[in-house]
Amino acid sequence: MPVYLRKQEGSPSLQTPSISEFKLDDHDFILDPEILHDSLPQPYRMLDKMVDLVFELSWEQIEAIEAEKARLAAQRRIPKYESPSIVAELKLCTTLRVSPDGAHLFTCVGDSLRVLDAGSQKLLSAWDEERIRVTRIEACAVAGISATAVVTLEHNGVCRLFMFALEKLHLVKILNEPEPGQSSSGSKPVCVDIWIGPESSFVALHSTNEATNASFIDVLKCPREQWMKELDTANQQYQKQVAAGGGASDSGVAAAAAAVPSIAFSKPVPVLRARCPQVPTGVNLQPGDLLKKLPPATDQSGPAFGSGQLFPQLTSLHVETGLAAFAHMHAKYVPLLPEGGGGGGLHIHRKPEVMFFTPGRLTPIGLDNPRDAERVCSVGIWWSGLYYMSVYSLLKPPGKDVENKPDSIVNFAGPICASCQSPDNSLVAFGFSDSTVCVHDRQMGFSLLNFRTNRTASAITAIAFLSPALFASDHSDNEEQQQQSSRSSRLSSRAASNPPPLQTPQPRKLVNAILALAEDGTLSRTCFTNDGSVRRQTVYLANTPECEEERITCTLPLPSLPSVIIAMRANGSLTLFDLVRAESMCDLALPAPSRVPSLSAGGNVAPVMGGKLLVVRGVNTEEEYIEPEPAQPEEPPAEPLPPLENAEAYMFALRSFRTLDAHWS
Questions:
Q1: CA nearest 160: which of 196, 185, 122, 124?
Q2: Cα 37 from Cα 389, distance rounded (Å)
Q3: What are the pLDDT digits (tens) for 331-362?
Q4: Which residue has the higher pLDDT, 533 or 108?
Q5: Going by C-beta distance under 8 Å and a sequence separation of 6 or more, which residues neighbour residue 596?
Q6: What span, in angstroms and rounded, lies between the C-alpha atoms of 452 and 353?
Q7: Which of 7, 38, 128, 380 is most buried, most CB within 10 Å of its CB?
Q8: Hey, how many other C-beta atoms are within 10 angstroms of the C-beta on 390?
Q9: CA gyration radius for the chain?
Q10: Would strands 613-620 and 647-653 be described as parallel, antiparallel, or unpaired?
């Protein structure tokens, strides 16, 4: 039956298809006849096209609406705080680090290492026996004593260990100095990265030697028991000096504080050295050098090297032609060859990561003794670009030979890019180059869960475990319990005479959360249960920005506020994010033209006093600092120090921000 449609202006035109348009293709004969469908007759073909057209138009409108929502969400107005106070005591500081309790601030101002009170910014102690330029500081509390271990890294690769005790800095040891029995001739290894273990039990250094292309990690054990005895002895002497100085008088206390004895702490001893695996190399000789090692040809009928034929030996012209052809065919790989063409092979610089582990299934040593259950017994080391992590035991007695083989190896299917540990040290998460995260159960020794944290295959640059208290409720378990309760209530209404037996409540599953930062600036979080059975949908806090300057480069947690993190962007600005609501809260801006210089917030942002105050280091990029000339001419140092940056320290009072009132309460 023919159907007529009234055409209107602006309405989509539909041409009535003819039967000739539904001819089978030439390759349809190879298909299964059961999956071939006959074409619809009229008017159903026309109705099918109309439905498809309505769907396409509706879907275009839906996409436009969603894009507009995303644009409005990106342009959401958030408060911006741009009037911080200037900390005059931290002018020309090179790095910042806060103590674990948030009460002290460690910094390097000019050429002096200083310790300040975090609340009043009062100078407590300074170490200026040598002119140093510190670029990084790591601090950790020492278990059992009221002291803090401080590890500093200088611009020339020198690493020092300090102990902050009795309100004074004490130099313990230069960690990368050669031992008395070792030869100091030749190139000296340079320290490029440092780690400090939990409760200051171990210290790890990553050193490189440019002359030999050697890259290795040294792990040193700290004698905490001996430190405790030495500090007790010094504390008794200090108390006697305070009592003899006048007791409650201010001048006596100040004089006694100035006369704090210098404590000679015991030095840490090396227990492990792990070298970076190198790429296997082949023959380190050029073709010309290899031909020179051949005996001279006495007869033209003798075989020539590399020819397989009987003709005279290759001349230098043949070798030069072959080298030119090789350089033309492999033009993009020739710059990777070592200088000189031979010897040494290709050296790839890999960045390591160190994690200290307590006893578990991977390293069961210490599980039989409850006292050693929380002590560090092993260390995990992985190198960028490799597919495995090596686990070394740290319970072996120190000796001359510290280059031990790994006790176990954890293999993966891709190169590792980032890693972190859970707060209870039971889980370890690894991030890979395809935005995949693998959660490894360290206690049981197997992979617990694998999931993607990014819409694109962008490499993960940083991951971190969030506080389980933020996502304690498991919605899937609650829904299942509600369904069971409703089902049991219906059954009980039907059979009131036979009430169901009481059901014992099931223990709630612990919900873990991982915060992942991708290379393209995407910031996301994913929640999952401790057994890996339930995983929630990945929530994105920040998507890939349109411009490179808005890309997030690193994150930093806030003490006392586990639901808030600080994100640093490539342009040097700071943004506070709410992890539970997955949205930005406010922006922090420094006065122009100052900006946070580095892409890493480790030494430029320091939350003190439990996160109530935030100290940010900014550098004036438009004006250079000119050091004043000394009044008396000094001898030039053996190694000149790099020029100081025109840096200022700014303080934000986070406790006064109205956007954080709900989190503080």
A1: 196
A2: 55
A3: 887 777 655 554 444 456 789 999 998 887 65
A4: 108
A5: 568, 572, 573, 574, 590, 604, 605, 616, 617, 618, 619
A6: 22
A7: 380
A8: 18
A9: 34
A10: antiparallel
Measured distance CA(429)–CA(451) in Å, rounded: 11
391-427 exposure pattern, b = at least 16 Cβ within 10 A, e = fewer: bbbbeeeeeeebeeebeeebebeebbbbbbbbeebbb
Amino acid, single-letter form, for residue 117: D
Tell me the one-letter amino acid at 242.
Answer: V
Residue 613's pLDDT is: 92
pLDDT tens for 246-276 read 544 444 434 444 567 788 899 999 999 999 9
What does the pLDDT look like over 43-82, one tens digit per residue?
888 898 999 999 999 999 998 888 887 776 666 678 889 8
Q: Which of these ranges, 340-344, 540-544, 618-622, 659-663, has the smallest mean pLDDT?
A: 340-344
From the centroid of its chain, how far is CA 308? 55
- Helix or strand (DSSP H, E) at 135: strand 134-141
Q: Are 659 and 619 in contact (CB under 8 A)?
A: no
Helix (H, G, I), strand (E, B) or coil at 160: strand
Please, what's the b/e burial string for 90-109 (b: 16 or more CB within 10 A of its CB; e: otherwise)?
A: bebbbbbbbbeebebbbbbb
């889980």: which residue's tokens?
A: 427
